[in-house]
Amino acid sequence: MGAYMKLTSFTDYSVRVLMYVGQKDGELASIREVSEAYGISSNHLMKVVHLLGKGGYLETIRGKNGGFRLGKDPAKINIGELIRFTEDDLSIVECMGCKDGRCALKEECRFSDVIEEALRAFLATTDRYTLKDLLKGKKTIKF
Question: Which of 28, 45, 83, 136 is 20–30 Å from 110 (CA)?
Fold first, then answer.
């Protein structure tokens, strides 16, 4: 069994949406189109697209011929920042940052320190990559 850290589906879908529109070279995409491509609920995607639009990751266009596309250059969409933006809570274990006394071991336990160090390493790695890195072989979109 491989070791892994699980992010929320929301973050997974956010990356997928950005990768999908990043491959469209500036053309508009629709929620239905992305939903069909990935087999993801349209309701979930509406929430994802809304948040990504609010964060400037997507440009959203309302109306009959509306849709969405990247809101900035793929080279400026940092994956670590995206994860921090889409994840409500990066506490891997319940006791991370716990100040309310729920941990029975309190001062004796250093497990949360180890996990916090691992999380910092994870984020440091994702901080080294951009959406452009995930879209290898695609031409750069002009912004």
Answer: 83
